[in-house]
Amino acid sequence: MANAPRYQQIKDYLDQKIQSREWPPGHKIPTEIELSEQFEVSRMTANKAIKELVNEGYLERTPRLGTFVCNKKAESPLMEIRNIAAEVTSRGHQYSSKVITQKQVKARDDIALRLGVRHDTTVYFTQIVHYENSVPIQLEERWVNPYFAPDYIQQDFTTQTPNEYLMQTCPLSDIEHTVEAILPPPHISALLEITDASPCLLLNRRTWSSTNLISTALLYHPGDKYKLSSRTRVS
């Protein structure tokens, strides 16, 4: 950092405060004058550092009030399936995960219907929290048909995501998505480190490989930290 351009040093300093959440969303950052004095640079240099973070969506300028940390949301494409670990690292952030549950279960009625198996069929179940810079951004609950992915339950999902493993084992051919806004049950809010009154985005997903229905998943996202996007070409 010492050899970086002066504006980059200021930008890195501000970014570290934001990413560590020492400065949470809504926090007012030091003024250009204060930063120029702290780093012994011109006001123009401080302005450049702030301007880049504004353009990247991390800061927001409010006339006559100052510059504030934005509530920047992670974003995923709705019509695609991407590895969440790759998404996080592509933003220059640190990905990590915590496996809560990984076991065989008997498919209850709703899961059996969604997975295309009979009630009480043995299926694989994993529950994993995905983090971006140590902040939970997704709780993944996934049920997998063991007939098509027999080794799923033996995998180490701290070194690869279920999505990554299934994409390699059962190449994706079709996906089904539905999205709804919910208030999370207590066990979900606890794992996502939010309150029961915090809205969530719930993505219901099913995936096929050829004609085989491989998995069904419930993906919970804190509404204030995540958004889903879609782009369609209209001819």
TrEMBL record:
Identify a single GO molecular function assigned to this protein: DNA-binding transcription factor activity
Key word DNA repair present in the record? no
* SMART domains, per database record: HTH_GNTR, UTRA
Q: Is tRNA-binding one of the keywords UniProt gives this record?
A: no
GO terms in the biological process aspect are: L-histidine metabolic process; negative regulation of DNA-templated transcription
Pfam families found in the cross-reference section: GntR, UTRA
Q: Where is the HTH gntR-type domain?
A: 4-72
Q: Which UniProt keywords apply?
A: DNA-binding, Transcription, Transcription regulation
What name does the UniProt record give this protein?
Histidine utilization repressor
Species whose genome carries this gene: Photobacterium galatheae
Q: Name the lineage.
A: Bacteria, Pseudomonadati, Pseudomonadota, Gammaproteobacteria, Vibrionales
